[in-house]
Amino acid sequence: MALTLADPMVREFLSHGTRTGKLAFTATDGRPVINPVWFILEGDDLIFNTGRNTAKGRAILRDPRLALCVDLEEPPFGYLQVQGAASISEDPEDLLRTATAIAARYMGPARAEEFGTRNAVPGELVVRLRPTKLLGGFDMTA
């Protein structure tokens, strides 16, 4: 059975706790690169922020095809690989909203505004990864 974001188990796995996404993209010379990202699931998109002039930002602006892997690093071990295409926003209100929501997930509600404001500055991007394919499983020990 194909995995989809409509599956409550998929949504729970992607939204649970502070699992970090491992974002895969292609460098200008064709090398595969993987960087960690904090993200949230919003509707059918995985959302993260990054700087326009970072390796991630430049790569996404050049080629929006991405893969993001989220894993469970303890038994029963599991992972989801999300493949898709990204869209970009530089809207200041959208940036502040998403940066604050991401900060709430990873830093907690008490520090969400602090980190959201710190990360919602000119030159930052809102990246929405819309899945086209999901791979993985929830129990690699079975």
UniProtKB/TrEMBL annotation:
GO terms for molecular function: coenzyme F420 binding; oxidoreductase activity, acting on the CH-CH group of donors. The keyword Oxidoreductase applies. One of its GO terms (cellular component) is cytosol. Keywords: Oxidoreductase. Residues 10-133 form the Pyridoxamine 5'-phosphate oxidase N-terminal domain. It comes from the Bacteria. Signal peptide: none annotated. Transmembrane segments: none annotated. InterPro entries: F420-binding_dom_put (IPR019920), F420H2_bilvrd_red/Heme_oxyg (IPR052019), Pyridox_Oxase_N (IPR011576), Split_barrel_FMN-bd (IPR012349). The keyword Oxidoreductase applies. PANTHER family: F420H(2)-DEPENDENT BILIVERDIN REDUCTASE, HEME OXYGENASE HI_0854-RELATED. This is Pyridoxamine 5'-phosphate oxidase N-terminal domain-containing protein.
